[in-house]
Amino acid sequence: CMMQEITFDIFIESTAASTLLITGASGIHRLMEANIYAENYIYRQTAERFSDVMWSMGQLLFSSFDKRLAAYLADEYVKLGSDVISTTHEQIAKNLGTAREVVSRMLKYFEKEGLVALGRGTITIKNVSGLKKLLT
Q1: Disulfide check for 1: which of 25, 49, 101, 125 has CB 3.0–4.6 Å away?
Q2: Strand ranges (DSSP E) for 1-125?
Q3: What are phi and psi of 73, to 5 degrees?
């Protein structure tokens, strides 16, 4: 809604129960004109998302996959506050922009190195400091 001249298809996948509000660009622009706080929030969110995209592009272009996967697992560990991550290799592949086979191969390597333990639909972080060492 923010960029009137740019149109593209989007795909949204929720991992938790969610409520979605869909509105047209004209509704968003009226809101922004009427409320400076809403305008500020929308611009800030846009800038943060753009920054996230640029970071992701940098990771894809300049970082090896083992580092990207280690960073992903370490981030999930912090975000969830748990050493057990309930996800699939396919979902990780989608999140990191690669093939499931690549994720499976690297996770097997991480398991062999004692960094993680693999289970059906779960990855248990065994050595978070070891994962973080891969990032340097």
Answers
A1: 25
A2: 84-86, 116-119, 122-125
A3: -65, -40
